[in-house]
C-alpha cells in the first residue's frame, strides 16, 4: 500500500463499507448471470474508488461514469437503499476531483441521483420516503463541500497572486539595484580605466601631471565608495531622518556645511525608500560636482503632496546637468515633478510628488 493510499485509508474504508450488502447478495445469486453481473458491478465500484482516492487524472471522466453506473446497478438490481452509495461521489467531487457542482462531473452526479431517486419513489413509495432524510443530507453535504472547496480555491488564488507579487517585487528590486549600480559605478569605472592608462603613460615624462591624474583617481575611488555605501544602505532600509543625518556626516567629512528641516510626514514605505534614494543621489551630486560650501534641505507635506527642496551654493546648473538626469528619471517614474533653479551661485532642486 503506497503512501497516498495510506493517507486516504479512512475515506477508502468508508467507500467500501457499504459493499457488505451487495457482496452478501452476490454470494447467493438466483441465476449465474446475476452473480456475474453483481460481481462485475462490485469490482467496478472498488476499482473506481481506488482510482479516485489515488487522485489519478488520466481517464478520470470515464471512471466517473463507471462509478455512477455501478451505483445505479446496485440501486436497480440489488436494493433501492444502495442509493446511499452516492455519499462517496458526493464526498470526493469537490476535493479529490477539484470539480464544481456546475460541471460535467456535477451534472452527471446530480442527474443520475435524481433519476434513481424518482425511480425508487415510483416503484417503492415507502422506501422513497424513508430515504428522503439521507437524500437531504447528501444534498447539504454536496453544497457545503462545494462552498468550502470554492473558498479554498479562492484562498489558493490569493496565495498564488501574493507569491507572484513577491516575485515581481523582487525582480523590480533587482532591476532598481542594477540601475543604481549602472548609474553610480558604470561611468565611474570607465573613467578610472581611462585615467589610470593616462597616468601610466605620463609617469615617465611628466611626473607632475601623472600625480594630478592619480589624485583624481583617488578622489573617484572615494566617490565610488560613497556610491556603494548608498546602494547597500538602501537595501538595508533607511528612514528619511536617518538618511539626512548620514548625509550631514558625509558632507561634513567633505568640508560642506549641511542644514536641514524635516517636517513630520506620514508616507508609505515605498515612498520613504524613494525619498531616501533621491536625497542620497542629491548629496552624492553635491560632493562630486557642486564645489559648494553650504547645503540646505527641506522636506514638507501639504495635503496629499510631498515637497523636497535641496539647495547648495556651488557652481550651479552647468557643471551638474548630466548628473541630474538620473534624478529626473527617478522622479518621472514616481509621476512627480522636478524643477532646477540656477541660483547663481548655486543650484536649487525642487521635487514634488504624491504621498
Automatic annotation (TrEMBL):
This is histidine kinase. InterPro entries: HATPase_C_sf, Sensor_HK_TwoCompSys, Sig_transdc_His_kin_sub3_dim/P. The chain crosses the membrane at residues 7-24, 36-53, 65-89, 101-120, 127-144. It is an enzyme of class 2 (transferase). It comes from Macrococcus lamae. Gene3D superfamilies: 1.20.5.1930, Histidine kinase-like ATPase, C-terminal domain (3.30.565.10). It holds the Pfam family HisKA_3. One of its GO terms (cellular component) is membrane.
